[in-house]
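Section 3.1: Structural characterization of target chains.
Under the original work plan, the team committed to producing a structural model for every single-chain target entering the pipeline before any wet-lab resources were allocated. The record below documents one such target. The sequence was received from the expression subgroup and is listed exactly as submitted; it comprises 137 residues.
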Amino acid sequence: MAVRACRVSDKIIVMLKHMRWNDVELEKLNPLLDRQMITGENLMLARVLLKKGCVVPEHSHLNEQLTYIVEGALKFWIDGKEIIVRTGEVLCIPPHMPHKAEAIEDTVDLDVFYPPRQDWLNKSDVYLRNAEPAASR
């Protein structure tokens, strides 16, 4: 990972980052769910790896979320609807909107959050760490 401080003005210094996913820590949250995260000043990009049957329990957060499916498919329960998001598709989830997801096949997704998820950064995201697979519900 390359990090470089750049001066924007006399008082503001921002950090420029250039990295490869292979160099980002892979966090194992449960047997069916792994995650990598990169944060900037105001954004977070997460690469989420879900095995088929992985369930992300219903939750909401103050963060706006964009979910892009790189490969696979996720079924979301959101706003009273079931929505399947497949490879190449994007779902935009507004702040504070309760949602749940299930991997209906092995899936790689990229999630963008504004602002960054503090519960993920401080590892207080118990709802993910204790999630049960779809088969055992």
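Helices lie at 118-121, 126-129.
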